[in-house]
Amino acid sequence: MKQRIVVVTGGASGIGRGVTEGFLAAGDRVIVADVDARAAHDTGRDHVELDISDPASVDAAVSLVTRQFGPIDVLVNNAGLAGGGGPVTALDVEVFDRCVRVNFRGTFLMTRAVGAHMAEAGTRGAIVNVSSIGARQPTPGLGHYEATKAAVDALTRSAALELAPHGIRVNAVAPGPVLTPMTAGFAADTAARAAWESRIPLGRIASVEDVVPAVVFLASPAAGHITGVSLAVDGGQLLT
Ligand code: NAD
Fold first, then answer.
1. Which of 9, 32, 34 has most ligand 1 atoms within 8 Å of its beta carbon, as the pocket-test mutant?
2. Which one of 2, 79, 115, 149 has the fewest beta carbons within 10 angstroms of its own beta carbon?
3. Every domain of the chain and the residues it spans
C-alpha cells in the first residue's frame, strides 16, 4: 500500500500528538499542523504552522503541504480548546467566541479546504474529526464547548453526505475526558478527578492511547463502509 499523506491539526500536543505517532507507526507520512510553531517543531516531525480559525492561514498551509508532500489522503481535525468555563448565564463572551472560532469555524475551514482538495485530486481520502461526548451529555460549565462539538458532529454528517460521491469518508471520534495538557488542571485536583471518574462505568479517565486507535481505524481501509458516525470512546459514560 502506498504511504498516505496525513495532516493532523493540533498535532503538537495531547491527543493530536498521540494520533501523529499512531499514523507514523502504521507507516504513513504525517504533517503536524499547529498554531504553536515551537511545540510543533519540538515534536521532531514534519510540521506546518497554521491557525485553523483563519481562512488565509488554512489555505496557505494546505497549499504548502500539497506542494511539498503531494495530495492529502487523511485529515484529522483535532485542534480544539475550551478556553475557559462557566455557566451560560455568566460566561465571558470572548471565551465563547474563541471556542466557536477554533472548534467550529476551524473544523469547517479545514474541511472546506481539504475536502475540496481531496475531491479535485481524486484521493478518495478520509477525514476524522475529534468531537466530544459533551456534544450529547452536558456537564455544567462547559455549555459553550459542548455546543461547538455538537456543531462538529452535525458538520461530520453533512460533509459525509456531500463528499460520499467522491469516495471521501467523514467520521468523528468523541472522547470522554482524556488525560492531556488540556485537562491537567482538573486531573491534578484529587476531588475533581474522583468526581469525573465516578461518571465513567469503566472507572477511569482515558489516556491518549485509548483514543488513538479509533482515529487510525476510522481513517483506514478497514472502515471503508463507515461514514457519518461519531464514535464514542468514553468508558461507557454515555450509558449513564
Ligand atoms: P491540547 O490542549 O493538549 O492540544 C490542543 C492542540 O491544538 C495544541 O497543540 C494547540 O496548539 C492546538 N491548537 C489550538 N488552537 C489551534 C488553532 N487555532 N489552530 C491550530 N492548532 C491549534 O488538547 P487535547 O486535550 O489534546 O484536545 C485535542 C482535541 O480533543 C480537542 O478538539 C478537544 O476538544 C478534544 N477533546 C479533548 C478531551 C480531553 O479530555 N482532553 C475530551 C474530548 C475531546
1. 34
2. 2
3. 5-232
